[in-house]
Amino acid sequence: MEQDIDQINVIPLVDVMLVLLVIVLTTATFISIGQIPVDLAKAKEVGDRKDVPIVITLNADGDLFLNDTPLRDSTLKDALSHESREAAVVVRADKTTLLERFVSLVDEVRGLGFQQVSLEVIRL
To answer: Are 60 and 88 in contact (CB under 8 A)?
Structure first.
């Protein structure tokens, strides 16, 4: 005896949708955790870079990060020793950072031989 199926079984569909939801939420969490919160300064003219620069971040507390990795025990000189001196360096500094701290950071980077040092800002 054959039975006609007159209902759709939605349980497998719900299982698949829940798995997809878990994957999306997990991925979104990893993406947002990887960024260091910095309130950047604003500027009217902003240049566009096509290459991948070395990113040095200086947050409001004065902590330094090299490409999102905190520089705790090592100095900036040690961290940049293996980088090419022709590479572009972008400094992301919080807008509440003391100007003296920012200038000393840029001076230190330029003193290590890096000539392409720029400041990251957001467009007005």
So the answer is: no
pTM for the full predicted model:
0.59
Tokens 């878990």 belong to 22
Class of the domain covering 42-123: alpha beta
Please list the pLDDT of the chain residue by residue as tens digits (124 residues). 577 777 888 888 999 999 999 988 887 766 655 566 677 777 776 666 556 788 888 888 888 888 888 887 668 888 888 888 888 888 888 888 888 888 888 898 888 888 888 887 776 6
Domain ranges of the chain: 42-123
Rounded Cα–Cα distance for residues 22 and 100 (Å): 46
Give the integer Cα–Cα distance in Å for 71 and 82: 15
Token pair listed for 124: 């007005």
Report the run of H or E that residue 13 belongs to, with start and end: helix 11-33
Query: How are beta strands 122-123 and 42-43 bridged, if at all?
Result: parallel
Look up residue 120 and give its amino acid: E
Q: Which amino acid is at 70?
A: P
